[in-house]
Structures are given as structure tokens and as C-alpha cells.
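User: what does the whole thing look like in 3D?
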Amino acid sequence: MTREEIVGALLTGEPTTVVGGRTFSHCGDGRPAPRILRMDASSQILAHEPADLVVTCEAGVTLGALNARLAASGQHLPVFHPEPGRATLGGLVASGWTGFGRRLYGPLRDRVLEVVVVTGDGRLVRGGAKVVKNVTGFDLPRLFCGSMGTLGVIVELTLKVDPLPGDRSAVFADFDDQKAAIDWGLAGYRSAPGSLEIIVDGSGDKWRTWAVCHGPQSDVNLLLAGFVGGQSAADPLPRFGSDAKLSASEGTVVRVSVPPSMLGDGQVEIPDGSLLDLCSGTFWASVEADWIRSARESAESIGGSLVILAARTEVRTSLTTWGSAGPAVDIMRRLKSEFDPGGVLEPGRFAFLEAPV
Amino acid sequence: MKHLVGDGVSARTKLKGAPRHLREAAKALASVVGWPRVGVLEVERCMYSGDAGITSRLPGLVVWPDDTAEVAAVVGVCRDHDLAFTARGAGTGLSGGAVGLSDGVVISTARMDSVLEIDPVCRIAWVQPGVVNSDLSRATESFGLHFAPDPSSQSVCTIGGNVAENSGGPHCLRDGSTNAHILAVEVVLSSGEIVMLGSLAGESVGFDLRGVFVGSEGMCGIATRIAVRLVANPVSVATLLASFPTVNAAAAATSAVIAAGIVPAALELMDAPMCTAVAAFLGTADYPTDGSTVLLVEVDGLPETVETQARAIEKLMSASGATRVNRATDPAQAQRFWKGRKSSFGAVARIAPNYYLHDCVVPRTKLATVLGEIERIADDQGLVIVNVFHAGDGNLHPLIVYDASVSGVGDRVDAAGAAIVEACVAAGGSLTGEHGVGLEKQRFMSLMFSEDDLSAQAAIPRAFDPAARANPDKVFPGGSRCGDVRTLQRDAVSASGTGLWA
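Assistant: Here's the predicted 3D structure for the full assembly of 859 residues, as C-alpha cells:
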């Protein structure tokens, strides 16, 4: 669809859902609206200036297509996703996608320099700028990161990319005990003189803790010196991007996020089979629905969250996808009414936007 | 800041001569913080009229709260008396963001200068907004950690100010500006309510309110506690100073470094007149006086990577036409290299007594073109413009150096500034890379953004502050937002000197 067509579509006021590669379409409250706006055909890479480390593309460009193009110039967008051939940049940004790699490369939201969006009431709006450093006005790109299509349809993005780094190195160790696995990861991280990704994978028979980093061998030795007894292995990061175990599971898949200091001291219950991003305080798990309510209360009481990523409809409805949006939810409601006064976009997808009765 | 000017002055003296509507507010503020911490006399308020930029305005009242509860109570007084408020850190801002309204209240965070908590394992610190940027890094030094954003004013500017402006600095090239280093902010909203935006947890639910609060120039509320991300002090550092015969050659060298896949920790350019001024100021041979343009490059991290990158950079500099490439042999020399860069604004006093420092961004690939434009603008207006800037991210700082006592020069300086901004935007750049829009660049917002773009941006402060009390006359053209709910004081902002309490 052209931008004009999208504007026209939204001006009709018909409730609308936006889809890209449909890799996150299952996540959210309510049901998809009857009218679907498909963005996957808007898949042009509009501009790439390698010497500026900046790329501009339509929202429907997939992560895989973008990285294939950037690789030709020795660059990449350092984001890991299970299905890079389907996940679109618009969708990754709108869904607030994180995944692994934040420690080594920073989060995606720090890389969105400019967005062009169509608001719920049909205004074509540009926010940010196509330069890597900019503080002009208010940060619309950041507002749209994680907005799940509820404020506007992203039609174009400008992103900051990186030179392709050298190979990653990794070590791992296996533990019978979850706490020992976490402690080993934290002990190594504590003394590391640089950036590391620490992943604790409970999906196998044992708890396996990984430490991943960059650099030539002598630097890697310094970074990994604190991981006593670790075995070297091939870089696991792409595999964690593509690990389908959780999404194929039968239980309810949740993402729990807490202050990272809470993960190490046993305050938070981490179910068997969880996958942890240790330094971010986030883990993914497949659980029974009746575990969720109290786990969510626990997480929220310490400033965290529990989000239901995949579940049967009745589970999502009774528990809601997102839980509490925190003490500033009124500000979020006002933003929604500013950008989409008619409630056209993704109605009900954020249950917390509905004002309490 | 323990002894206040108004100490020992009686309440009666303070209130004498004040307009009725501010008198009641002053009394209400005094009931929160006590009379010594309410600035009512002109002598108390005049020091809070301006920042380090060109705009100033005598505020209605000034108040110095100690903590979150007092800030909330003070903002509540502003709410009850329908007064605008403007937060102020150290007043080092260059765009007028901390300039209060003449019937508004300046809320100074000077007394909120405690580092509250440091978690060296998770590399997080909680600070009050008045903590000085370099004091924070000094406090975390013993843990081998520091706060990455390093504006040139870092020995004076505060974290609260860094949050309001999304401050940069040379080391933000690789590590990002302030927004990438703030995990959570406790904010007092204009309603008086205290909310936490963001959290220490890696994920958040809903809209990124923390992310839009950073850089919101005081228009969304006041940060009263800030959780910052700390980074590990590097094991190795290599600092290089390369001299080039022309600015174009230095700009090309900058692009060559990036194209080679190296993102240095910092990459700064200083043109020939700037180098000459700095060389004379420092009295060392580090900076050339032969008309060369200098690139100051720093890489840091682990030893082998740093060594490999430093060598590659030396080669790239030479291949791009550098006549001299010096690598600091010890930390003292590296510090001297940096001293030249960080004292450059003061060094221009050797050229003329006044300067106007600009801040705008262009794509790196357009650096040479825009620098040529700036030279042409300087010639057109008969002014001296010297350049020092963050070449790595295209963030220009042209300094117009002049003598304010020369008749009519102010208009030429203004015209040159406007032309520079226009040239940068036309080259695909942005109005401001780190100083903010404030009052200084309001009138240029329409160069970059359409009416629809601006009204969408204005929705953000409106959602935080529907009553338009938080620093309301900033950023947007005309100092107003769509659908004003309050009448804003539209008195003239003077380029120097103070307004009058009428």
C-alpha cells in the first residue's frame, strides 16, 4: 500500500490491525480488528550510506533482507530473531523486540533514528532525523518503539547500523542446579573488563550458562577469565535467535523481566526450562496458566513485568497479556487519544489503555 | 551550596514590593522549604536569569528544594497558584532551556546533589538530579566504572540537566547519548504526582515514557531521582592527534575510519584557527600552528583490539593525507591532547572577546560540503567562524567569534547563525545534536518539521503536562503548544541583561 492509501484507509475510521511478517501477531489483548493493513509488500530499502552507518527502509523490509544488503558493505543491524526472513523492521520496532545481544550491541530502540508514521487519524508524520545524533524536539521514534501499532502505522524507518564485528567467542558450563548456573554467570560477569552476553539455558537436561564476547584471542581470554572451568564452543547467539523450543511448547509462553540484581539472589522464581538473559534480568519460560498470576504480582512489586507472549485465548483474556503498565498509565492513555482519537488502530490490544470503570 | 543569599533577611523584607499573586505563592513555598530557600529579592533571582547561552529573563521566584518530597510540594504550590515552573541544574545549558518565565518559578536542583546508591555488580547508580556529571564518575571510579556521557561542561553540569537535554559529548560516538544510559527516572509531574518512568528491569510494558522523558527539555516534569547505567573503565586507551593540510582531508579521513569498520570512542575535529588559538593557550607543541586541521581520535577497550585499531587508524590518517600523526605515549600526554579540545571554547578569547557557539548535525558524508558553506557564510557576514566538533557523528560546533562592542555585529552574528542552521538542515541534518532547542532554536523548528510533525511532537508534553505548567514556552515555535490551556507570559527574552519585575 502507498502512504496515501494508508492515510485513506485510516481516515475511514474502520478499526484496523497492522501486520508485517506476522511473527508477533499472536501477542496482545483483544482480537485482531476486521480490517488488516498488510505492510509486508512495502519492502524497499530506500537509502544506505555506509560511511554514515545509516540505512532508511520501508517498514516491510525484513531483518534478513536488510542484513543481506548491509553485509555487502561489511555492516549489519545487530538484532537476533528466530525468523529473520519474516520479521519486518516495522514489526520489530512496533513490538519493542529485544532478544539477545543487548549487552554487546545495545537495544534496537537506541538505533531508531527517524520514523515516518501515519497516525490513527490519518496524519502523515515524521519524527527524528536521518543522522546518528539528534535532540531536536520530542522523541517520536522512541515513542513508537513498543507501541504495537496502537499510535500509528510505521511506514518508514531510519536505523543506525554497525560495522560487522569479528567473530564472537563463547564458553559454557553445565550445572544440575539453577542457582549454581546463575552464580557462575554473575561471578564471571562481575570481573569482566568489557561487554559480555550471559545466557542461562534451562531447556536441556542441565542448566547451561553461556558467556559470549568479541575480540581477538588475547582480549577474549581477559574477558572470559572469570568463567572458571568453562568450555569453549561455537558462538550460540544466532541459535538463541532461532531457538524454536519455547514457541512450539504447549504451555503458556511468558517473558518475565525484573531488575537484574533480583535474579541472582533467589527472590524470583525461575521455572525449569527457562531461558535467561542474565544481565538484563529477563527470562522466557513455558508455564502453566495458574503460575502466572502470583508470578506477575511478584515481578510487578519489584518494578518488573510479566508479559504473556503466547497462550490460549481464555488465558490471555483472564490474565491480560501485559499486566500493569505502571503508575504513569494515564499519560499513556492521553497519548493514545492524541495519536488515535477515534480508537481506530489495534483496538483493545493494550488492555491497560482502557480506562478503569 | 549551603549559604543562601537571602539568609537572615526577614520574611517581611522579602515580600515587600512583590506583586500580590507571587506574594501568596512565595509564602506557600516558604511554608515548604523555609524563607532562606525561597528567592524573592531581585539579587537572589538575577543569578538564575540565564544559562550559558544568549537568552535570559529574570524569573518570578526561585526555590531550592532538598529532595523529592519538597520538589513535589513546590510543584504543588505552582499548581495551586497556576504558575509555570522551570527546573535548573547548573545553568550550563546553551539553548535557554533553564530560563524561567518572568511570572514563573525556577526550581533549582543545586541542593539535590547526592549519589544515593551504587550497585557495582549490576553497574547501576541512583543519583539526585543535582549531582555533577564528573562527580558521578569520580564516585564510581573505585569500582572501575564511569558514566559515559561526557559533555565539555561535565565538571559543572548536572545529571538532571543531562537527562533534560539528552546531552552528548565526545564519547557518545560509540556509546550513545544520555538516553542510552538512563534506566529509570522518578519524575514529579506538573500535577504534583510522583511517578517512576522505566525501571531497572530490562523490559517495559506499554509506551516508552522513560525514553521520551529524556531529552524533553523540562517540559514533561522534573526528574528527582535518576537510575543511570555505568560502564566499565577501559583497560587500554590510545589517543591520537593527526594534522591535515585541509579541513576536507580531515573530513575524508573521518569517513575512512568509519568505512574501515572502526567506530572510535571519540573522533573530534578542530580547524586551523582553533588549533592556533589552542596552541597559544596551552603553550605546547601538541597542536599545530601551521594552518593544519587536527583530528583527535581515541579508541579504548581491551589491549589487542585497541592496538590493532590504533595502528589501523594511523595508517588511515596517513593515507588520507595527514602530515603528522602523533600517538600519546602516556596518559599525561593524552590528557594534554584532550585539554586542547576541552578548553577550545575558552581559547578563542585570543581571537575576540565574545563567541556564539552553535550546535547542529549533518550526515558525516556531508561534513566537507557544509564546512565549505560555513566558510562562505563567514565571508558573507564578515565574521570569524572557527570549528571544533564531534566529527565522528557529524555534530558541528561552529563558533562565531566576534567583538560585541562593534556596532551592528549582533545582527550579522544572528544572520550567520541562521544561515548555518539552514545549511545543515538542507544537507539532511538536524537543528541540534546535543544542546537542545530551548528558546534558542524554536524559530527554526519549522525548517525541519511540518505543522503535522510539530503537533504530533507537542502531544508528548501535553500528555505529561495537560495544564502546560512545566517549562511551557520552550521548543515549539511561538513558545506555545496547540490548544493552549493557559496564557503564557510573552515578555521579551533579552539577549543580555535582565528583565524587570514589573
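In plain terms: Residues 183 and 402 of chain B are 42 Å apart (CA to CA). Chain B touches chain A through 87 residues (CB under 8 Å).
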